[in-house]
Amino acid sequence: MSLLDKTVSSIVPPDPVAKAAARARLERLAMPFWSLGRLMDLAEELAAMTGSTRPPVERKTIVVMAGDHGVAADGVSAYPQEVTVQMVANFVAGGASINALARQAGARVVVVDMGVAGDLGALGGGVLARKVAPGTASIVRGPAMTREQALQAVEAGIEVARGLGPTTDIFGTGEMGIGNTTPSSALVAAVCGVKAAEVTGRGTGIGDEQLQHKVRMVERSLSVNKVDPGDGVGLLAKLGGFEIGGLAGLILGAAALRRPVVVDGFISTAAALVAQALCPLATDYLIAAHRSVERGHRVALEKLGKTPLLDMDLRLGEGTGAALAMNLVDAAVCILTEVATFEEASVSQRQS
């Protein structure tokens, strides 16, 4: 049995007993019924995911997976491909947006090379080396990768989750890869059965003319790569990226460990769709951090059945939205574990 099969078979539904116990306590807190709204929903969900009415969330890890894309040469991005290598170096140096926001949230950042088209040797141990290949092929001319490479990418992500699991209570997803909103758009279009124009956005900030070109590239990728939306490995192989596959594996590995995963923006959510195709149960361990301005993100979130915690016009990626949302995770746990009930606070309850 493959590592993927073993991982999928070990994923179980969230704990209904812990969920019911959390619900019972939240309903008795000294406040009008459910008056902290979605913070209370989140607290209940965290209890179910972790199997505890005191959900452990202190040890936070945001995993930033990096990979390059052959489609970047097809004029879909405002930035050259070498920016991927440069930004990975910035992550390791601690100078990127994700580093700042992770520090604020009390999270560590782990950077993984899944398929960067460049030499990261100078960064030493600052990057986990899981490179499948130095970038994918262009999806506008054929599959992004072989099926074997897709499986390797997913299983590498599972291994990262397993390796970090003993020191991580909650994961966040992040990514870096110039051009990666294009395969993400193709994945979302294929899985959700919508037209390319409905899910293809401006990515790094391209103008109107380049956006129309990008839509055509996504349309062409869907035309030359016929996919089965239910085949997660095949979907990834034809339309994905190595970092997207790694994030899908991370989600599966975390779910098998009963660790919540805070999913960042558009690319991370495309990875979550791949994980959902591989194991629908894994979706129960996901927390949608925010709604990106990328037009396909709303469609992808609806397919996952997730309502995002934040809506702040974010479109950076890197895991920045996940870092911000981890503050709300902390708040939700504080509500569940620190607020007194009516009985504990000797506060009169609502009259019937």
Question: What would you note in describing this structure?
Answer:
The chain has 352 residues and is of the alpha/beta class. The chain folds into two domains: 3-54 and 336-345, Nicotinate-nucleotide-dimethylbenzimidazole phosphoribosyltransferase (CobT), small domain (5,6-Dimethylbenzimidazole Phosphoribosyltransferase, Chain: A, domain 1, Orthogonal Bundle), CATH 1.10.1610.10; 60-328, Rossmann fold (3-Layer(aba) Sandwich), CATH 3.40.50.10210. It is 49% helix and 9% strand. The chain is built from 15 helices and six strands. It has a six-stranded parallel β-sheet, sandwiched between helices. Helix 12 links the parallel strand 5 (261-263) and strand 6. Helix 5 (97-105) runs parallel beside helix 14 (320-338), helix 6 (147-164) packs across helix 10 and helix 7 (181-192) crosses helix 12. The model has no long low-confidence stretch (mean pLDDT 97).
At a glance:
By secondary structure, the protein is of the alpha/beta class. It folds into two domains: 3-54 and 336-345, 5,6-Dimethylbenzimidazole Phosphoribosyltransferase, Chain: A, domain 1 (Orthogonal Bundle), CATH 1.10.1610; 60-328, Nicotinate-nucleotide-dimethylbenzimidazole phosphoribosyltransferase (CobT), large domain (Rossmann fold), CATH 3.40.50. It has helices at 3-9, 16-27, 37-50, 83-93, 97-105, 147-164, 181-192, 196-199, 208-224, 232-239, 242-256, 266-278, 295-304, 320-338, 342-345; strands spanning 60-67, 107-115, 127-129, 170-176, 261-263, 286-288.
